[in-house]
From TrEMBL:
Protein name: Flavodoxin-like domain-containing protein
One MF term in the entry's GO annotations: electron transfer activity
Cited Gene3D superfamilies: 3.40.50.360, Electron Transport, Fmn-binding Protein, Chain A, Ribonuclease Z/Hydroxyacylglutathione hydrolase-like
A Pfam family: Flavodoxin_1
UniProt xrefs under InterPro entries: Flavin_Rdtase-like_dom, Flavodoxin/NO_synth, Flavodoxin_CS, Flavoprotein-like_sf, NADH_oxidoreductase_modular, RibonucZ/Hydroxyglut_hydro, Split_barrel_FMN-bd
Signal peptide from the UniProt entry: none
Domain Flavodoxin-like: 364-504
Keywords linked to the UniProt accession: Electron transport, Transport
Disordered as annotated region, ranges: 1-43
Originating species: Tetraselmis chuii
Length: 683
């Protein structure tokens, strides 16, 4: 494959800001990587640093953003998109398939939503057959310019006859419109392939200058159908979820590749095309992506996995020779998975089973609609807070459901939240209908804890309307209304997540009340064992963390040195802790080791009740760590600055392994405060 490149960087910058050297051949070609075909893939990368602005588009279906924009009290324009630094990588996968990847080291909007600091990547796949080309996947508007600049190095834009859209979003219109226009310039019409739920939104969101039948053709794929790509056929498997109702996967038998779009993705910026890093390094990234995007719809995710069970993925080809063998999974985000397909499928099944089991005990319904994606981000953060407290979550997008589904969900759940944007000073129609359905169930539903949230650009009337209607109906609120202007910041998402945890704990409290008097579960440990475990002591510390405008802290005694070189320690963090969401791999935190006789002030500050997102340090004088700028407790005998390297799932806790990057003794004469317990079942 011939590719013209202006310049090739020798250094790839990771999200940590540390340069990582990449081996390269003369001319900028990276070492050949393995691929399923006999041909070895070659990769070419080009760095760009362009300001890519996402233009305003319309959200179709039952919420009209265009109508809202024309309203008299339409919100002021949002701030311009930030300048992004991207790197383009082109890799020949063999058998006429090329991957075009956009890597971005900058922190994206959804990274704030997912509490990540690893950058991201978007992968697109180009099938070439004679003079006609098929593109699978369309980039986010923020990457559209970089994508369109790089694509001509693979094929002329006018040669793209088929555009496969496994998931449609109005945020991906810019490149799609350009590809349609380029094909039309050749006198031919491109064929768009999308899921049935995306048909109307896609037609509505495209510019009015592009007309179906004149400028493009569009067809809805069906489960089991095949998309003709020259002589090859790409088999379609529909895998919808509430978050992505139009999602589908495609299978290419020539390369034995299952193109999974959003499924099996992870948000990381890496020069690796394949999963060569090892399962231990990648597992946490896949798990975190699952928890942020699919945990709230575990039942639907399980259905998608069952549909894919018709393929033999990874190990086990000999067990079912009649089924199609999948050698590798090619997602929209992250690396192509070929060495760890078996592990990833196994983990997905375990993660979904765990969420479904939690939902059988107690479930909270997250009911919402979204115009620009901001309310969706808030809904996802609330869902994470609910799930981390051990309660099941079931999401319902009102744009894709009817009032009867809302009623059924409220009847079945132990609590619920309702979220809405404000459009033209009102709730959109789907939310009005959902609210009416909930109020009709008031007799049974008013005993269930609930909450309301929403985003807006001007005054947020929809949030007040929902709150007033539910309050007048006698409903009990687990948290105050959450109001977000424009896109949610890290602090706003922290408020959402902690509110979700508060709601889940209220549900659990009600459940305990109902079961009071019944025989409790038998303790796994005998009283003697409990007492023995309680004799294990630890130093009394305060763990503090921050991410942008969000801060949090917790009192900790399960802290221990774990390694000499590099100097490292472990910290056990309960999964429902507020600070947990700020302690993802790659993040930094500070451990203040309290001094003996100087624990009263810090313990009082850390153990008091906090509202969601409330500043733990308000009215409390703190110090600043010299290297990371983290928060230090002044009464500490010493402090260490740490960076999270890995995260181990340990029952009801996470065990963090972190490298110590700096430290300082504040009081050389002070002994470390120790925490003594009488039992191993409590702190």
């Amino acid at each position: 494959m011939a590719t013209t490149v202006a310049s090739v960087p020798s250094v790839f910058r990771l999200s940590t800001g540390k340069p990582r050297q990449r081996q390269q051949r003369r001319g900028g070609i990276s070492p050949a990587a393995r691929c399923p075909s006999s041909a070895k893939p070659s990769a070419v990368s080009v760095r760009t640093g362009k300001c890519i602005s996402a233009r305003a588009t319309t959200t179709a279906h039952r919420i009209s953003v265009r109508a809202a924009a024309e309203a008299p009290n339409a919100p002021p324009p949002e701030p311009e998109a930030p300048k992004l630094e991207t790197e383009i990588t082109v890799t020949d996968l063999g058998n006429g398939v090329t991957q075009l990847r956009v890597n971005c080291t900058d922190k994206m909007a959804y990274e704030v939503e997912y509490s990540l600091n690893k950058g991201t990547s978007e992968n697109f796949y180009i099938f070439q057959s004679g003079s006609e080309v098929t593109v699978l996947g369309i980039p986010d508007n923020q990457f559209a310019e970089a994508f369109l600049d790089a694509l001509p190095s693979i094929c002329p834009l006018s040669s793209i006859a088929n555009i496969i859209i496994p998931h449609f979003s109005p945020k991906r219109l810019e490149a799609l419109a350009k590809l349609i226009e380029a094909r039309c310039s050749s006198g031919e019409l491109p064929m768009l392939h999308c899921g049935n739920p995306a048909l109307t939104p896609l037609k509505t969101a495209l510019p009015e200058s592009l007309l179906e039948g004149r400028d493009y053709r569009v067809t809805a794929v069906r489960n089991g159908s095949a998309i003709a790509v020259g002589p090859r056929r790409l088999r379609v498997t529909l895998t919808p979820t509430p978050r992505w109702p139009d999602l589908f996967c495609t299978f290419d038998s020539a390369t034995e590749t299952l193109f999974t779009s959003k499924l099996f993705s992870c948000h990381i910026c890496t020069p690796d095309v394949f999963d060569d890093a090892g399962w231990e390094e990648l597992n946490e990234d896949f798990r975190h992506y699952f928890e942020c995007t699919l945990a709230a719809s575990a039942k639907q995710a399980k259905k998608a996995l069952k549909k894919l069970a018709g393929y033999v993925i990874g190990d086990g080809a000999s067990a079912n020779t009649k089924a199609s063998y999948v050698r590798q999974l090619a997602p929209l985000h992250g690396t192509i998975v070929r060495d760890h397909t078996t592990e990833l499928i196994r983990e997905y099944n375990e993660w979904t089973d765990k969420q479904i089991a939690a939902a059988e005990e107690a479930t909270v319904g997250v009911i919402y609609a979204s115009a620009y994606g901001n309310t969706t981000a808030m809904a996802q953060a609330i869902s994470r807070g609910i799930a981390k407290a051990g309660v099941g979550v079931e999401s319902l997008n009102c744009e894709m459901s009817d009032p009867e589904e809302v009623k059924e969900l409220v009847r079945r759940c132990s609590g619920f939240v309702l979220g809405s944007p404000t459009l033209g000073g009102h709730m959109p129609t789907p939310i009005q209908e959902a609210l009416g359905a909930i109020l009709q169930e008031a007799r049974d539903a008013r005993t269930k804890p609930c909450g309301v949230f929403g985003s807006f650009g001007w005054s947020g009337e929809a949030i007040d309307m929902m709150h007033s209607a539910l309050k007048d109906g006698g409903f009990a609120f687990a948290f105050d209304p959450i109001r977000c202007k424009f896109k949610p910041t890290m602090q706003m998402l922290q408020i959402c997540e902690e509110s979700g945890t508060d709601l889940a704990q209220a549900v659990q409290k009600e459940k305990r009340k109902r079961s009071r008097g019944a025989a409790g579960p038998t303790s796994i440990m005998s009283s003697g064992t409990e007492q023995a475990v309680g004799r294990i002591v630890g130093s009394l510390c305060v763990v503090t963390a921050r991410s942008e405008d969000a801060t949090s802290a917790m009192l900790a005694s399960w802290v221990s040195q774990a390694s000499f070189s590099p100097p490292g320690l472990t910290v056990a963090v309960a999964k429902e802790r507020a600070v947990e969401s700020l302690l993802t791999p790659g993040s930094e935190f500070v451990v203040s080791v309290l001094g003996d006789g100087a624990t009263k002030g810090p313990m009082k500050a850390m153990l008091k009740a906090f509202k969601p997102g409330e500043d733990r340090f308000q009215g409390y004088e703190t110090l600043t760590a010299e290297k990371s700028g983290g928060i230090v407790i002044p009464e500490a005998a010493s402090y260490v600055e740490c960076s999270v390297l890995s995260k181990l799932d340990a029952g009801d806790h996470w065990v963090l392994y972190a490298e110590v990057t700096a430290g300082k003794v504040l009081n050389d004469s002070m002994q470390t405060a120790m925490h003594h317990r009488k039992t191993g079942t409590t702190y």
